[in-house]
Amino acid sequence: MNIRQGSLAIAFLPTDCKSTMENTFDVLIIGAGPAGSSAAILLAGAGWSVALIEKQLFPRRKVCGECIAASNLPLLSALGVGTEFERRAGPALRKVAFMRGAHTALTELPPATRSGFAWGRALGRETLDTLLIDKARAVGVQIFQPWSLNSVRGGPGAWRCELKTVGSKASATLCAPIAIDAHGSWEALPTGRDEGRRVHRATDLLAFKANFVGASLQDGLLPVLSFDGGYGGMVVADGRVMTLACCVRRDRLEALRHTAPGVSAGEAVEAMLRRECAGVRKTLSTATRPGAWIAAGPLHPGIRVHNDDGFFRIGNAAGEAHPIIGEGMSMALQSAWLLCAELLGAQREERVHTAGDAAWQHLARCRYARQWHQRFGPRMRLASLFAHASMRAPTADALLMLFKAWPGLLPLGAIWGGKTRCAVDAATIASLTALRGTI
Ligand SMILES: Cc1cc2nc3c(=O)[nH]c(=O)nc-3n(C[C@H](O)[C@H](O)[C@H](O)COP(=O)(O)OP(=O)(O)OC[C@H]3O[C@@H](n4cnc5c(N)ncnc54)[C@H](O)[C@@H]3O)c2cc1C
Q1: Its domain of life (predicted)?
Q2: What is the domain partition of the chain in residue ranges?
Q3: Which atom of ligand 1 is nearest to the CA of 245?
Q4: The domain 7-60+125-195+307-384+424-437: what is its CATH number?
């Protein structure tokens, strides 16, 4: 059963919001990365009134390795952006390498198990995120951009969010019975709850990305880079532009900057990679970098899907894996689908109109969190092990020896890391796609 526009909101909102109906929605989604935009498309497609709040103007560059595992391609297709993805994305990713110092271990990647989409590909975030938000707009999502969530009051059943525009003094109040946190993990959300100021630690991971043209990276090759105090990756994405993204520990970065005063942090990282990794040196020998390095962090790998603050969380807001396995966007897209299946009752007997009720939301959050742990817990643990081993010389050297001796370990890691199997089953994809079709 589909709900009609705004019917959840009218039933559950406090009276002060009922008087300004233009600001009342069934659901508020904070953040229009792959997680937020996917959830917005699915819920709007099922007839919900959706407000999607994004503080940055698109297209925008984002720190990311930009590889989309093949397991996500059926989801992008069902969201209505598959054709554009196919048209624009870089070459099919069929090989993986582990590069450390002077050495490279190289092997084939396994194909994905679901029909039609065997290989992952890379697409710049300026393009992917814009495709998704444009689709959300096209299916009737009301987009507040560039607006930022400023404060939150209320709770499940009656949320009241204050927004302000970025770059002007305009503000707005949006109300909804359901709120989804899809704001990522690199900044605090102003929920009014004191999340505490994080102290800088030597082990903090800072993330960097730059694009290069004319690089001599083989098409379809996905090298994972290992170096002391960090890890990274390279890939050829859309328009034959190469993306180099990496994470560096704060203590290593400080040491690098100390020895290279006057250059940006990204440039110091690039100089180190050229110096210490033969694979990077060779790849960049023919390349130019048309833009600046961009940076983000510190990263917060870990699980926070089940919180007591009443938000439903998807994407990095729910949990962030170490990006060494390049599965963050998979988890963003797939967690959005899992949550929407829960909210839309696609797999249950309950009726959708109960979704505004606070007690129902609590149960739904528990059910969704349980699924999240089952589907993503193993790859979070694998990513953490692989990341920590790759950043320390003794374990990283051991990994290199293992990968050279048994090349099959790398594709096995890709399978364990979730690259070949989607966490959303085919029946759920079909039922949510059918809901979209009925509007
Ligand atoms: C170095 C590196 C390499 C990576 N490589 C890969 C890879 O190759 N493949 C892969 O799948 N993943 C990769 N990832 C992970 C991937 O980038 C993230 O997991 C993914 O972006 C998470 O998507 P999301 O939608 O949850 O959040 P995000 O993409 O972070 O989107 C959140 C959005 O919310 C907005 N926002 C934040 N706060 C507010 C607010 N208060 N109000 C309104 N809007 C707000 C932000 O502007 C942003 O647009 C990498 C990450 C790093 C750091």
Answers
A1: Bacteria
A2: 7-60+125-195+307-384+424-437
A3: 1
A4: 3.50.50.60
